[in-house]
Amino acid sequence: MGDDHGAARPLRADARRNRERVLQIAQQALASDGLTISFDEIARRAGFGVGTVYRHFPTKEALFEAVLLGRIERFVADARALATAEDAGRAFFGWFAAVVEQASGNQALCDMLDSGTAMPVRPGSTLARDFAAALGRLLARAQRVGAVRADLTAEDALDLLRGCLVAERGARARGGAVRMADVVCDGMRPRSL
Amino acid sequence: MGDDHGAARPLRADARRNRERVLQIAQQALASDGLTISFDEIARRAGFGVGTVYRHFPTKEALFEAVLLGRIERFVADARALATAEDAGRAFFGWFAAVVEQASGNQALCDMLDSGTAMPVRPGSTLARDFAAALGRLLARAQRVGAVRADLTAEDALDLLRGCLVAERGARARGGAVRMADVVCDGMRPRSL
DNA sequence: ATAGAATCGGAGAGCATTCTCCGTTTGTCG
DNA sequence: CGACAAACGGAGAATGCTCTCCGATTCTAT
Q: Rounded to an integer, what distance in angstroms lies between the CA atom of residue A187 and that of residue A189?
């Protein structure tokens, strides 16, 4: 356990400003360069020494988490909001497409969701589980009304989601993920008889 | 330019054996651990010093290429063989599924095809282009007979292929790629009217 | 203004990775 | 068998990354 339990003493004004700036630059850097960007590079872009950045975030992982967790939490929240939507099929496909679209503008988010590459979420965190659970609920409801083929597992749907995001990685960021999502969503529908 | 133009002097018998062993171990290591495995680790697994391995392959990239190029060339050859198949739709979907299935047992192949992560093919090589072209031809023919929706580009199909392979990466290698390919192939079919 | 605490900066420790160098060992040919 | 070229082994140079440490600097409260 650290030493800043609950609300520690307030940060000095300049420190608060600097922390904010680091967060903002890190946000940009992660969006454009992905999870592989180095800590030094972020400090450099923000115009601080690495020591300063480490003062605010004890670890590279912690910084990345601070930038990215909110985004993913929002996805989970969106899914919860849709959990009782009228049209279960629309809810599932809409959420799926929305996640792909929003994540596709953000390298780091793609890297993270596609996983396989490092996942900057602490082992203890239930976030990955929450995300999967949220998707699972939306999927189950959509299947119950026959909007999605019944043999699709939640794991499959997650794979499909990750797969779409891959199109947006590296140099080729040109909207491929959204086009993929269209095809993939079609594929998830029950085969018309 | 190196110094081994054309057929240099034949390797000493033990050297040839060792080279073969390195290739074989590297093959296994790449299949199970992917492109991120270190050169030292391969040397260790093969039971050689790194110097020895470097004697045979001037660079990490060269070794990986020696192991993987053949695999990809075979995919390209398969595509060529199917270029005049009777059922163009069957040819395209069959090839697509076959590539996914074969690559899915091989971490390195997944890493490489999905790209975004390092591509161990020399810039000069036309292999990536050849692969894309082969897929493009199969796709075009399938579209001409109405087996694949017309608005799909070759780039899209490549993204979709890469996307399927992502399911097989990291710890979770459990056949997800093949299941994904099924859904994705369905999605590529024209929307039934 | 000034003392004292909070914050900053960046050199460098520690580690992993690719690749080089050269003394030592081993195969091959007469 | 013996000599010489070929091949081996692994220490270590060079690079790049995360993270630590502490003297120098800047803020803030009085």
A: 5
Measured at the alpha carbon of residue B35, what is the angle toward residues B31 and B37, in degrees to the nearest 5? 90
Place of tokens 């995001």: A165
> Residues with Cβ < 8 Å from B155, sequence gap 6 or more?
A176
State whether the beta carbon of A58 lies below 7 angstroms from any atom of strand C.
no
Cross-chain Cβ contact A187/B186 below 8 Å: yes
Given a contact cutoff of 8 angstroms between Cβ atoms, the answer to whether A190 and A150 are in contact is: yes
Question: B152's torsion region: left (phi>0), alpha (psi -120 to 50) or beta?
Answer: beta
Asked if B175 has any chain A CB less than 8 Å from its own CB, the reply is: no
Q: How far apart are CA A49 and CA A51, in angstroms?
A: 5
Supply the pTM of this predicted model.
Answer: 0.90
Asked if the C-beta of B118 comes within 8 angstroms of chain A's C-beta atoms, the answer is no
Strand C positions with any atom < 7 Å from protein CB?
Answer: 6-12, 16-22, 26-28
Judging contacts by C-beta atoms under 8 Å, the chain A residues touching residue B149 are: 183
Provide the residue-wise pLDDT of chain B in tens; the chain has 193 residues: 434 444 568 999 999 999 999 999 999 999 999 999 999 999 999 999 999 999 999 999 999 999 999 999 999 999 999 999 999 999 999 999 999 999 999 999 988 877 654 455 565 667 788 899 999 999 999 999 999 999 999 999 999 999 999 888 766 667 889 999 999 999 999 987 6
- Indicate yes or no: CB of A191 within 8 angstroms of CB of B188: no
